[in-house]
Design goal:
376 residues, alpha/beta, TIM Barrel, 2 domains, eight-stranded parallel sheet, 12 helices, 10 strands, 13% strand
Length: 376
Amino acid sequence: MDLAPFRFELAGFLAHLHHVHGQAREELALPHRWPPKHLPPSPARPRQHTHLDQRALRRMEPHVSISAAPPKAVFAAPFPPRRGWCDPAGGRWYPGACAASPRRDLGQWLTRQETALIDIGANLTHEDFARDLPAVLERAVAAGVRHIVVTGASRVGSARALDLARSHDGMLSATAGIHPHQAADYDDDADAGLRSLARDPLVRAVGETGLDYNRDLAPRDAQQHAFERQLRIAADLGMPLFLHQRDAHDDFLALLRRYRDRVPNVVVHCFTDTAGALRDYLALDCHIGITGWICDERRGLHLRELVRDIPANRLMLETDAPYLLPRTIRPTPKHRRNEPMYLREVCAQVARDRGEPVEVTAANSTAAARAFFGLG
């Protein structure tokens, strides 16, 4: 068969494909060309600053394309990308998206900065993250987590949290404090060390500190002493507080009330307490941190009711990784380690319980965290 009569039609078709492909690249800005070099930065095309963002986007290239256009035009290209979420840990593809689903359309999550998440408490200095922390951070970025506050829970741990924040400036910041479990070791040297750490601009709050009468790993008088001295640090330096309380509400509240007017912000992290405790903290204008505890159908059901009563500007989200892996994850990971990428599960559960779109929960919690920690 003589194909000569069709050569012009074939050439025209190939030229058309080339033109369409060029348009698609300009409209979608594939991950390895983000932001497009030929386009200036603008509010609709924020420039990415961290190498983690770039690496994470390159890993996701087979699954999602990121739009250079405003959010409403995310999938305006002639050939839309696949829509869904590929879980790097499980390798499973979750197609589609809905307002109450924990696995949102990843292109929209990453493009729409107002729905980016902030994990206000992750124990990234824990030994469980020693071997693969870079991969953990990449997965967090891929899941829409834009910033993580690394919890300092001991003198050594607080220094390590600050070191991590310095090595990932823009992605991580830190707190500095001594957990009530370590309160027996609190002395003048520890106090001076915390004061020195807290003066670093990357340390955003004093804590984790507070009272824990559930396990009583330190004498209660030692816990109260360490807690009050850290309250003084926050008051003297004008810093927010990142607090822990279990089965110690009355003593905790009494000490906090003495200093509440002298500190700018307070978050009761990993809140799991009663409706009465919640009312007490909100009356003191405290923020409330919600973790994967709310995803636990065995012990977190009461939180699903209480979370509706938390004002949007007082609600923040956290993983408390590597602890409290959300039980709503499907398929259930073979490991039991929590990590910041699973903050989306917490956000989705909170959105369902509050009866609002997940974008609203994400946007409000992120705005609250930015204001609380001064993240800009």
